[in-house]
Amino acid sequence: MKIENIKYLLPTTFILLGIALNSCQEVVSIDLNKADPHIVIEGIISDQPGPYVVKVSMTGNYFEPSLYFPPVTDAQIVLTDDNGQRDTLKESDQGTYLSTTLRGISGRTYSMSVVSKGKIYSASSFMPAKVLIDSIYAVARTGFRSEPGYDIYVLFKDPPEPGNYYRLNAKSSTLIPADSIDGRRYRLYTDKLTNGNEMTERIRAGGQVQPGDTITLELLSIDKASYDYFSTLRDILSSDRSPTSLSPANPNTNLSNGSLGYFSAFAMDTKKIVLK
Amino acid sequence: MKKQSLSIQLIILTFILTLPSVSQNRFTLSGTIRNGETGEVLIGATLLVKELPGVGVTSNAYGFYSLTFPEGTYTILVQYLGFKTRKDTLNFNDNRLINYDLTPEPIKLGEVVVSGERSNANVTSTEIGVNKLEVKEIESIPVLLGEKDILKTIQLLPGIQSAGEGSTGFYARGGGTDQNLIVLDEAPIYNSSHLLGFLSVFNSDAIKDVKVMTGGIPAEYGGRLSSVLDIRTNDGNNKEFGGSGGIGLLASRLMVEGPIVKDQGSFIISGRRTYADLFLKLSSDTTLNRASLYFYDLNMKANYTLGDKDRLYLSGYFGRDNFAFSNTFGFNWGNTTATLRWNHIFANHLFSNTSLIYSDYEYSNTIGVGTSQFQITSGIQDLNFKTDFQYFTDASGTVKFGLNSIYHTFLPGKVTSIAGSIINNTALENKFALENALYVAHEIDMIPGVKVNYGLRFSAFSLIGPAHLYDYDEYGNISDTLTYGSGNIIKTYVSLEPRLAVNILLNETSSLKTSYTRTTQYLHLLSNSTTTNPSDVWVPSTNNVKPQFADQIDAGYFRNFLDNEYEASLELYYKRMQNVIDYKNGADLQINPTVEALLLYGTARSYGAELLVRKRAGRLSGWIGYTLSKTEEQFDQINNGNPFPARQDRTHDISIVLIYNHNSEWNFSATWVYNTGNAVTFPSGNYWLDGRLVPYYTERNGYRMPAYHRLDLSATWTLGPHSNLNFSLYNAYNRMNPYAINFQQDPNDPNKTQAVQTTFFPIIPSVTYNFTF
Asked: Is the dihedral of CA B630, B635, B636, B639 positive or negative?
């Protein structure tokens, strides 16, 4: 292009209006349907000493939660393994059932059956070999624009064969178990992209922890069904939910007959650290 | 495959050449219709013979027309919206080649512009479910942050809905965002968005013509179920050098064009870049000043006319988005296309265009922190050969036929570990496929007043080795692994797609139209989100993934008023789609070799009525569109197998667009949109589990978001003959439209639950400076 062909170029100016694309959040009131009460079963078994707990309850209305949703009493609950062990659970508290003699062992498959009001709900779960935490350490974190806190590192070695799934819980001595040290209730890992590697996971704990707190880290080796359950549970818990996520749905349960909840066998290794 | 295609093509050619031959005393008038000031060819201009009612022709996508009629002396009328109608006396006693140059209509100061004769092409054509947009309209309509954008403008037409506020993704008559064929100068664009969906990749400086088809899709288009968006770019001024540009809050644009050889060849280059990142660099915050957030795109085109019968075009598009925070997180994606086209005129009534097209979409994403950093890349690449013929028969009919062959390379995903990371390098196998199509369509006046366009598209899709594929049992576990060598044809799907459109002309100003369209889609988009995302992955049909089909019938009443000043139409449609895809809950779609086991197949149907009243000329122009529709999906594994409303099921959808030329200095425009809220899934209950309250869902999409509405205003102040300032106000009455509603435990009281609404776009003013030189 020849420069003489440009007739003239007008001076260009522009006004920049300061615009901040700020999102705004507000609590709104929404009319929700009242769903018919539905059974919820939460059962675990681990390689730790029992008793193992199975809780049975019913759902309630969304905007009328209470600390205590209707428990399901007088259910018949039996835990068995693939080695012939069998344990009938005893109701200790309303809706809470405890095992009596059973002891979880890695490598076995456990089954749970719950009979309530003429319906049978069952599930089974495999208890994987325990993966040990090699070490943990904490680094006090300061820095520009990042709030003070600790980076807690957890090291463990993923076994050579693929198909390992983990759940990592981080608890603090000064918080109730439901409160997390970093805003996340639990972390899930799969070895899909890291099979056989030395794993280093970082937990960025913020203002909820103080020097002197004892942090307990629990590494649970879980089976694929449990991983699927917890990852689809995480998908619908709003703190992790993106506004463009696909339609939410009830987590992928391993329970039969339409029950909500899960039955999970896991092998757990625990390590503690005192923050300095 | 190839041999078969050739022989079918020969049969069609023979068929066409034996159509009624030119009798004595009948001659052919042919040529190109152009803008006399710039030499740009005009698409869809009409040429009428005044003395022969009903004899006329419309120029094609390359401005070419051909019309055969008896000898005599006639008055020829050549019309195009926004141009002075040209009236020529023609002493017609021989085959003639005439190129018509039209002069743009001047904008007269302070008086009502009286257009000459207006075309009633919308009433007389067989096109149904088709809308055209003038670039002028796109430029006048206010948009978010002043960045004019065709993908946002078409969302204001009935039958087309936005995929989300500020999003360039769209739904056409209940179809998904991946069911739209978007072609830029004949090259398919696989991801049409910049800035994570807020702007489209189409720079309106480069655009000449936009046509969007949601029903009655002609046989020359195929490969997507729900719509075709055909975008043609400018060829460049072949008379003199010039250019234009704009400086906006988000991006700046510059376009230059000019002749290569006067009246014979021209070029155009237009580019665009955002500069938010330049301001970030000024920040003292190390997180911010190391961030990059920009996109750019470049459209280039050159054409050259070789004699009366041949014209060559070379065009390309290149665009990239870069979005990164220091070195911990980054997105990078973009499209590249290149098109070489050759127009050739055989005799004077057979027009051909042959194109060689390369098209590429590539995405890479760096994610993870500390020791778990890695990069994911994926994409799709096409080599595309296309040849299209248009035969102008006697009796102002046309036959279109052609073939298209695309070689697809799919890169479903590759993970590259970043130094020191615990992530293993992994790659999913690339997949290869050949997509072929042959079509023929004939438009003819069956009897006076009844025009029919009937056509057939034959498409075939073959998955080609090398590949390792899996068979799955009912639980989604691998039951068999199948290995195929290089070049092996693994699986072929074929489809016959009839297309039919009928126009019954009631009188000069009204008509009834109807159409039937079958479409087939062999490529599927896997997406983790409800909006278009750069990380969405295109996958082919395989042994497990079946092609999607759609059947649509459409009927409409078209009526023009007041000497064609007002166009109105009412269309009814019913569309059924098969093998549409959804996912199992929690499906892991990225870097998953067994992703096909996580797909669900179902049906969808959409039906509705669309009303459009449009005024295309005069001081006040614009349209009112209203759509009443219903879209439902059904999957055996979702919602207990019961049909449920699709997310994009919006019962009412209203768009009002007004453009007002006040005087030579001031132009104003306004748009107002209203639609029923999206169908969404909200919880209907609650339970305690693992120490937290968990929402309980009972049905898919059983709830509605609040209705969405918004008013946008824009004013353009012309500073002089070569520049203007545009002021716009997005969401002028500051409606807090919810982007999302989340349900959560009350952070202050974990025993309570609440619904929290997020709004992204309050009132947003902006200013853009535009200039030409």
From this structure: negative
